[in-house]
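Section 5.1 Outputs to date
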Amino acid sequence: MNTSLKFVNQHAGSLPEAVAENDLDTLNLGLHCLFADLRRAQKLYREKVDNGRAGASAALGACWRFVMLFKGPLGEGLHMPILNLHASLQALDHNLVEPIFRPIPFPGRAPSSDARAALRGFAAGTVQRLLQTGLKSQDANQAVANKLSQLGIRPERGSGEITDRTVRTWCEEVASDVGRHGTAAKVYESMFTSAEVDRFSALPVDQARSDALNSFAGFVQATFPLTVENKPVNTPI
């Protein structure tokens, strides 16, 4: 039996939502199981050749098991949507497509995925970081486009490679979302916390440029693991 599942079976519903000092040992053990399972899920997501399904399934399992440790959420069944999604994802391995995974007919061109939106946001944030190091706008856009080409990322629609003009359009898209409502803008915003701005500003120029592009490459590798398999990710500008 999975170690974390065994732990949950022993301690399900044992924690209050507002933990007290005498709950800390159980909570810490629960967190240990959660993060161990999420690290295993990340490894599966990056390495297993199934478009990330095994990793996503393992991550969902880690989440619903952790929720079950808490008495109130367990009684309310708050873990059930995650558990059902987990089970439906596993069913795909047996060629069973549950209703939750059946596409809804949609007229016209399909909308962009959240993963692609996040890519556009991180790309725009990387351009901004490069601009802060003194690069010109076109050079920053080209550097990000080159990195995407090195990593094997292609346009979402059409053929060819992502160009500096494409990256510039992404930057304009993010800038136009003033309220930060979309995924791209939210990802962009998350890159510029006070702590991150201070850390990046303290780097020497050459190191800052390499850091920006390597951070971008790491994000792409984690988000599109099969696309960038065996591709270089540490190429400085």
